[in-house]
Design brief:
The complex is a heterodimer of chains A (about 425) and B (about 250).
Chain A: H1 2-32, H2 34-74, E1 77-81, H3 84-87, E2 97-98, H4 102-108, E3 113-128, E4 131-140, H5 142-148, E5 153-157, E6 167-171, H6 172-178, E7 185-191, E8 197-209, H7 213-216, E9 219-223, H8 224-231, E10 235-236, E11 238-243, H9 249-260, E12 265-269, H10 277-315, H11 317-325, H12 330-366, E13 368-370, E14 380-382, H13 388-414, H14 418-423
Parallel strand pairs in A: 4-9, 6-8
Antiparallel strand pairs in A: 1-11, 1-12, 2-10, 3-4, 3-7, 3-11, 5-8, 6-9, 7-8, 13-14
Helix pairs in contact in A: 1-12, 2-10, 2-12, 2-13, 10-13, 12-13
Chain B: E1 2-15, E2 18-31, E3 35-39, H1 46-53, E4 61-66, E5 69-70, H2 76-86, E6 87-90, H3 102-107, H4 118-131, H5 147-159, E7 165-169, H6 177-194, E8 197-202, H7 205-210, E9 213-218, E10 221-229, E11 232-237, H8 243-248
Parallel strand pairs in B: 3-8, 3-9, 6-7, 7-8
Antiparallel strand pairs in B: 1-2, 1-4, 4-5, 9-10, 10-11
Helix pairs in contact in B: 4-5, 5-6
Bound molecules: adenosine-5'-triphosphate and magnesium ion (MG).
Chain lengths: ~425, ~250
Amino acid sequence: MSRLRERLQDWFDEWKKTARLDYWLALRSVTRQGRRSAIGLVAIAAGVVSMLLAAGFFEWNYNGQREATIRSRIGHIEVVRKGYMDAGAADPFGYLIPEHSPARKLIETFPQVDTLAPRLSFNGLISLGESTISFLGEGVDPDREKKLSGALTILQGQNLSSSDAKEVILGQGLAQTLGAKVGQNVVLLTNTKSRGIGAVEVRVAGIFSTVTKAYDDYALRLPLRTAQQLLKTDGVHMWLVLLHETSQTDSTLEKMREKVGDDSLQFVPWYDTAAADLYNKTVELFSRQVFVVKVMIAIIIILSITNTMTTAVRERTAEIGTCMALGDTRRTVMRRFLAEGVVMGLAGCIVGVIAGLILARVITAIGIPMPPPPGMAQGYIAGILVTPRLVFDAVVLSVVTAFIAGLYPAWKASRLEIVDALRHAR
Amino acid sequence: MSIVVLEHVTKEYRLGEHMVRALDDVSLSIESGVFLAIAGPSGSGKSTILNIIGCIDTPSSGKVHVAGHDVSGQNPDQLASLRARTIGFIFQTFNLLPVLTAAENVEYPLLQMEELDREDRKERVQEMLELVQLSKYAKHRPNQLSGGQRQRVAIARALVTKPDIVLADEPTANLDHKTGEGILALMREINRKLRTTFIFSTHDKKVIDAADRLIGVEDGTVRLLGVRKEGQWAITNVARKAPAAQAQGKP
Ligand SMILES: Nc1ncnc2c1ncn2[C@@H]1O[C@H](COP(=O)(O)OP(=O)(O)OP(=O)(O)O)[C@@H](O)[C@H]1O
Ligand SMILES: [Mg+2]
């Protein structure tokens, strides 16, 4: 084990001394052997472009789905009473939090916070004429929800007008099943806090859809005040916190937990909520697909570099013999060829990244029309999002595979018999 | 003082079923500073001798001493370092690195010498290019040079490390007559000026005339040794080997 460490250390020391020269010579070879390098470069660049486009397309999709889910329904952070996530559905009145409190005031002063919206969740039955079906209801503050419901589309009618209006908006699927139209009155029935039955008649103000079809089939929303009257309570179940940027979620979460310091409250990031489930599963699925794409690209790069370098070693046999006659050791020969592989991988990658970024822009500008995905209500226009992370992955992928692909040809070059190699000049 | 000594050197190649004997019990001693031609018909073993002296090939049996080193037991890395410091090569086909300029080709053998910094290297390259009268072509690449110019770059490259011995395997065979004579004159001049030992192979009578020492080989054995003093060759014939040993060679 320690012998291996020593050897690695030796190699590294040697590398530090020789790398500049090796890479300078490799750059020479790659740039001055125009046509031969070009074939390898094009293959690598094409691989990188396909990886960036495929992964960038997936990235765009999950980025879009993530933002849509967050902004239409769940916000970035849900603040609830401890235990609500596990037991709240069975005992909705056991986990109420006040609508207004010092903790809420404190949260609203965070600079990262865009909006805080209180919500009251409940379920019950909705009736129109002869038909009665169950619903999933949310009492919302219409003013505050405006920002939080960016991806909630009003298909017909209007959104809720004020906090205490006697009106409701219905999910598209729910409205269809019920046969409800904008302007009609419907009756909502639910259990109240005092274990009685509450009822209210409200006017259908509008019909909406979100990105999640399953949700639209059962969901309705009514003004918070009206919902509270129906349930005979003045509490809410959660404060939804919308931040300016999704990337701020974790850091803000940390600070909130620390500063608010109220043990009865729980701060749940968006990705831990049930509503983010579909998103998380999609990401996992796509990540696997991207992995397969990466493996295929790695194979393309390995094949093309192995091929280019094997050809180079064969065509340059006399040159290798000459260098060794002039005093280059086997290791030097091996290092120089490995360097050529890496330079080729890197050069192909740079070309590929540039071409990929340009293509991504062009394709995004044109747009890719997409059918409604399973579980979602509408189709959409997709684009391609190339993140810095993707570019980094592409660079690492091509350089590492180029190095690996170069190992065998470089080793073969270093093992040539000098005299035989020199004979190739004739 | 002998700079190269071969003792009973034999070299065999396996060619399919049978063994080809390229060198058969060759013993030689070469003095420092000579301008030596190895002559003989095609296939006689000239290149094989040069390769063994140059430490790019190893004998099947026998001992080799080059510039005071016993080469026999050395590993490839030790041989590489010996070549880098004590031997310069000139090839029949020039063998310049095509992606490097003339100056960079000359600089190449210096790159592995850690004791030389950039300035030292540039200075030496400059000096060598002047010596072969190619300063004007420093930035040219090999394919922009004529055959004679290429061979002059190769000579500069062989000399830049200040080697003890320069080995040249048929250095003029790929050049027309006049250019070849120029190259030969240049090598001769350097030999006189720098006292570098030159060993070259040829089967051209005119080239032999430029030398001051001669080794004649035939069928893998040394047949004659010549020394030129004041323009006159003194030739010693080496006795044919005993019939028993010869039976193993060619019929
Ligand atoms: N790698 C090899 N495999 C088999 N035989 C070889 C090999 N190299 C040389 N020989 C044989 O060894 C003998 C001597 O070859 P060598 O190249 O030394 O001759 P040479 O005098 O240089 O000839 P030329 O004037 O044609 O260059 C020849 O018979 C040749 O066929
Ligand atoms: Mg020969």
